[in-house]
Amino acid sequence: MTHRKFAQHEIEEALGQLNASAQKAWLIEDEKLTRTFKFKDFQHAFGFMSMCAIYAEKKDHHPEWFNVYSTVKIQLTTHDVSGISHKDFDLAKQMEAFASRV
């Protein structure tokens, strides 16, 4: 599937759909799809990151992330289109599903 950079109205629409199930936790920061997850402890945060890493590798779409103890900040962008694409929203949806499991 060919992917392309989303136009601003497409980002807003997809962000609205994503946040309908994610309690408005995702936002656009530094021109990247961004969310900070908080977990019970480091073990849960690392478990979440491990699930995300395996999925991201299969999809060949890798997050920018930062972890301190129970907090994981994630930023998503599609580097080969220099912006946000469907790949970022697909990964964000999967991350939501993983976060609900840990």
Automatic annotation (TrEMBL):
Return any one Pfam family short name.
Pterin_4a
Identify the EC number(s): 4.2.1.96
The molecular function GO annotations come to: 4-alpha-hydroxytetrahydrobiopterin dehydratase activity
What are the entry keywords?
Lyase
Concerning SUPFAM superfamilies, the annotation shows:
PCD-like (SSF55248)
As its record notes, the protein acts as a catalyst of: (4aS,6R)-4a-hydroxy-L-erythro-5,6,7,8-tetrahydrobiopterin = (6R)-L-erythro-6,7-dihydrobiopterin + H2O
The reply on keyword Oxidoreductase is no
Q: Which family does it belong to?
A: Belongs to the pterin-4-alpha-carbinolamine dehydratase family.
Protein's recorded name? Putative pterin-4-alpha-carbinolamine dehydratase
> What organism is listed for this UniProt entry?
Marinomonas maritima
